[in-house]
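Quick one - inputs below.
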Amino acid sequence: MSSHAATIDHHHDPSTSTGIPNKKLLMWAFLASDCMFFGALISTHLIYRLHPPSGGIKPLDVFDIQLTSFSTFILLMSSLMMALAVNAIQKGNVKSCRWSLLTTMFFGAIFLACQVFEFNTFVIEKHMTISNSLLGTTFFTLTGTHGCHVAIGVLWLGLMYVRSFKPADGRGGAGVWFTTLLHLLAVFGTLVLTMKFVIELVWSLQGFNGYAMAGLIGREFLTIAGALIALGGCFWLARPAGPVQFDQRHAIDVESMGLYWHFVDIVWIVIFTAVYLLEYL
Amino acid sequence: MSSASATLPAHDAGHHDESKFPLYVQIAMLLAVITGVEIIAVYLPFAKWILVTTLVGLSTVKFMFVIFYFMHLRWDKPFCTILFFIGLVLTAGTMWALLTLFSVENAIPLPT
Amino acid sequence: MAHDTTAKSDFSPHEEHAPAKTFVLWRPHAPTGLMDWLTTVDHKKIGFLYGFFALIFFLVGGVEALLIRTQLMFPNNTVLTAQQYNTMFTMHGTTMIFLAVMPLSAAFFNYIMPLQIGARDVAFPRLNAFSLWTFVAGAIILNIGWFLPVDRWGAPDGGWFGYAPLTSKTFIPKHSIDFWVMGLQLLGVASIAASLNFIVTIINLRAPGMTMMRLPVFVWMTLVTAFLIVLSFPAITIALVELMMDRNFGTNFFEVSGGGMPILWQHLFWVFGHPEVYILILPAMGIISEILPCFSRKPLYGYPIVVFSGACIGFLGFAVWSHHMFTTGMGAVATAAFSMATMCIAVPTGVKIFNWIGTLWGGHLKMSTPMMFALGFIWMFMLGGFSGVMHSAAPADAQQQDSYFVIAHFHYVLIGGSIFALLAGIHYWFPLIFGRKVSEFWGKLSFWVIFVGFNVTFFPMHFLGLNGMPRRTFTYDPNMGWNTANFIATMGSYVLGLGIFIYFATMVYTYFKGEKVGRDPWDGRTLEWSLPTPPPEYNFAVIPTVHARDAFWYEKHHQEEIAKEKAEHAKEDEAHGGIHMPFASIYPFVASFGLLILAIGATVFDSNWSPGIHIKLATVLVGGAVAVAGIYLWALEGNEGYHLHIEGDDHKSDAKKH
Amino acid sequence: MLLTSLLKKLFRLDVCAFLALGGGSLLRASDANWFVMDGHQSTIFTEGPVAASQTNLFFVTCWVTFVIFIIVGAVLAYATVKFKARSEADEHAEPPPQGHGNPLVELGLIAASVLALVIIAVPTLKAIWFTYDVPGADTKAKLEEMIAKKEVYEVNATGYQWWFKFEYPTEQATVPESGGKAPLATANELIIPAGQPVRINLRTIDVIHSFWIPKLAGKVDMIPNRANFLWLKADHPGYYWGQCAEYCGDSHAVMRFRVIALGPKDFNDWLDSQLQPARNVASKTAPKAQLAAWRKPESFRRNESGVTSKFDISPLDAWIAKQSPEGGEDPELIAKGKALFQSKTCVGCHAIRGHGAQGVTAPELTHVGARSTIAAGLLENNHEQLQRWIHNPGVVKPGNKMAKGYIDNKITLTEADEEALVAYLESLK
Ligand code: HEA
Ligand code: HEA
Ligand code: CUA
Ligand SMILES: [Cu+2]
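Output:
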């Protein structure tokens, strides 16, 4: 079996007719399909931008190009980290791969936090909601769908990260099952709670909608404590222990996930230009 | 089955060993720079059509860099590229057709 | 006689370490019974289930059609109320297209395609099971309205293309449309997942030597159809998402007062809708391209060009959607462009017709039942295609659109085309799948009754349409000159129903009592006929090596050489540890079941702020959680399997001619 | 088994069965000439240039495909008969030569198909441009000029669930209630000048409808938020059937209308009378010719036909007869009806210019008595059908908005009320 080979050629899988691994082919076919999916959504948005209802909300009164540029940059960096993660696992470097996965996830979470922040300002300060204007309708649906894709990506990354600790010898039975669950909780707990705190922090700094710096720690005590505990859990569960069932052979899993992640990134490249930048002309 | 990969000439399997790390970082930097240029471009006082063309062009460049390098299309079997481009081309065509259909005079919505 | 193989399974797993067996990651392995059907990952069983459900829905859709025809038998008839009638044609169209023809095609894709390319299963067996169960979930959601009160629920009644803004909450506040939206959404997920699977299977799981240009045409058409599905369904998915948001979250996509343009729905729908009709016909053309050579004892005439024209139809199919919108005032230029593009499709389609005739030419035509249906297909599809070309002349279509002329056109292509071919396919592959042969007499009788009934039903509809009868009308006045044609059509539909009844009664009888047959009853040309009937769960004892198009025909004419080759490969296989078989799994079913609960939550309950919303949210969340858990456990349990060792000399007998 | 062998005997000749079944239904049909497509909504027997251009194109497509069908069909039939294996032995004979095709033949056939399509394509393109612009008015300015000069007549048609409103933007009618003027409006019967191009602006206030008068022009949809239009010309005065052709909800099937084309003088007379406010009846007129006794509304079954064949014989004459007051008008009864029209909240939805009714959500009734049909072409406009309608509109037309109005406003009418209302409505000439 190819799995026992000393070196694995990641561009050739001898067990398939074309040499392309099944999972990779599946992913590319899916991405071709996803193109159409976003194509339809972006078309909807652009068509309604071509024919806006009179007296609707103007995008320039709402958009914040600095924030969007920042999150675009962040997503780009996450793409880089993802590429590095694939690179690492292809060479069997599990540790490096894990770190890259975590960073990717972290950047993804920042992007999501930016989006949460953006949506909140748009709704509360700029009074653009999903139902009060056509712009809101198409904007929130399009970027929200993209956000969902990012969120699914983050979820997938987290699952992959935790999966990389699967013990090699199958020891433990139900115990492993329990540890896995705990690990998932710790990772996503850290992520979500940190995101929440950071958003609160920024809102307070900006004095957004009645938020104030004073008393932030008090208000968010539980969040902070929870995040710290979860973070501790992450470290503890990630301590080195025995051989794991995660190596070059699983590179294809990471790679497929990477394809998805990069695709989400290129969709954002298009959205950034078509939805945001073009409005500034 | 494993024999196929084991007997590959060393330099062929080699491109895995020389790390792509620097390449990836360089591309990421390039992408960041292009994004920066785009953001600045929209504030420049050029004719609209020039700017739109530039923006579309630059985004396409970014798009291509990501799919060919980060997503390995450059090193993969060409079939992957074909597969993806079937979707991409059909999407682009459909989007173009839709936008055109909605730009003709008959499509202008009634004044409200 | 079929050669029985004895299979012994050992559960030595594929990974180097025994997987941790916990109560959660238990792998079912029930060889029979309900549990087997729910957990199976065998493409043949999944194919059978697809076919089973599809045929049931075909009968449901057929009964709906008979009710429609009964209502229209006389002017001002009162068998159905207006509302019931509107529900009936909506459900009839939706059921026939999404729950009958598509899954029946999927049944053949699943069952036949892997056999024809010499594979042991599809690329992702568990994904395949997920597609099946999600399809069933979608079908349930679509039909759930029949069992709920019509005042606030009821079955969908917005027409099969659900034009906004009629389907918006303002005009149909009932949940009926929600069922339609959610049902189609699930069916979309199922179809896309299945199609991705087929694409990978066809491209990656071909037996050695089975190059793309040696693939049986049915496999090619499967591939093109799969591409059409993955590339066209996203458009309707988005359209449905937008409609759902409009209905549930107050967005303005099609809300006129907010500046929305309902015409956008039409575009998004038909961007999907037109490729959809080729999704319905290409598999049928594939089946016909298998049957004609087999019963002419000749290879398909002009194989490369038939394949190419199939791909061409698929590609062009994306460029013509607006021919369903010739009356929406697109402007002269756009109308002209779509009109011309539509006409172009007649060329590759014509190529197929010509090559089928070329296949017959000079052959030894054996007029068995599948052949009768296949010939019926050519005639009827040709007629349907011609009325399609009449539609494509946009100004002429201004008179025909939404009249019975369209109804005539698409029933000729859908019944005379798709259904005839699928019925032919059932007859053709019945011996392979069940090891029994359908009686020629009853088969032919059903063919003639169906053929006559079909033409008597739908031919008069051309005249009705030209005489100005609009479609989707529950009643008409006696003074319009439509009475006789309608009466004839209704009588015809009863004959058609009788024919279909005979057909299925014959099938059921054959399943239990039919004459048993062995391998290769038709003197087949493609690999599936090299197998025992019914095929064993591992399909091929030895993966065949393909040396030519019509691989099995070649094998039969080069027996010695092939036998030697097989024996060698069998030895190699055994050295690798026997035949690898995937474990069954319950998680695909669990994931689909979660989606079903989620969809029920999203559609059945009200979202007003009294208890409705809480029940709704709770159901949606529970369903979502079940689905996610199912998917996660499915990923976690891994694609492990066991090995089979074949005893006996099956390898040698493989090429033995019956 | 007996049955099988019996059937087998009967069924020896496949073709016989086909002929028997097919012929039987043809026989049933022959007395009715069902294939002669001369109905009221015939797309074949056209009466205007737009419909004619479309039908001519249809015949081109018909002939081209018919010829192809004959050729391809003949070859197919020949191949089937010629190469059929005649016996068991034949079936097991050596397989025929395994030919794989001939590129030249294939290319030739492709070329032939393309040629056939070109024959269809050229008239198609011509007809597309013909249907899209009123002849001579290919620019917007030119069109406006022609409308101003009344070389092209302009009307607005608006779809409502489930009836049509027609407006004449160039004709201003006085509205006594406001003292101002408003474009002339009517419902369900569109009166146009014959022999003159008419441009119809198509609008809808709710869902998508489609405006179709088969004998005059192919349909164009009325789509929300979209400025569609259609042009047509009636070659000569006449009475034409129209129908909503896009599924628009419960009563789509009975969303019909009529078009009446009139010669120049008749048209102007009609305009003059329409521009007047609603008529008042001051004195009793001579009794009219006795009508057949009309039934009580309860006796109508749900979908009982609302038209008589007598009406079909010369609908235009029937329409003309409707233009002038009938005999036997009873001012008292009419006055009672007028009062009921106010008190039963009919005014909330309907407009009757000059009688204080200014509703906008329902058909204008100022001259309803002068129409040949009511309820969007579903019922003949006579005493019997009017009463059937106002007695229970929801039964006549499922899902009807007027029926909903009855329920919302708790309207109940006694038989006497109905009679008064009918008399009143009939008086509105
Ligand atoms: C199996 C499904 C199927 C297939 C294969 C087709 C095939 C075609 N269809 Fe059909 N169509 C439908 C299903 C299908 N259709 C459905 C369901 C609708 C209605 C949807 C709704 O409104 O509910 C519809 C509606 C529809 C319309 C819109 C009508 C309207 O609503 O106004 C049009 C308009 O152009 C059209 C055209 C065509 C054409 C040109 C083809 C061509 O592909 C046909 C090509 C075939 C031939 C032409 C015959 C063989 C060719 C030769 C022998 C060669 C030589 C011939 C020539 C050169 C002419 N179809
Ligand atoms: C593949 C698709 C398909 C198939 C196979 C059919 C099959 C049939 N259809 Fe189809 N039809 C559509 C797709 C299809 N239809 C679509 C898409 C629409 C448009 C919907 C819309 O407008 O939204 C439509 C609309 C439509 C209409 C127009 C309704 C309207 O616009 O008002 C009519 C009217 O005659 C009709 C009739 C029939 C008939 C008689 C059959 C027959 O072929 C059916 C034959 C089958 C049977 C008769 C069942 C088998 C019978 C038995 C087993 C015996 C009986 C048993 C018991 C009673 C127990 N259909
Ligand atoms: Cu209005 Cu149908
Ligand atoms: Cu189409």
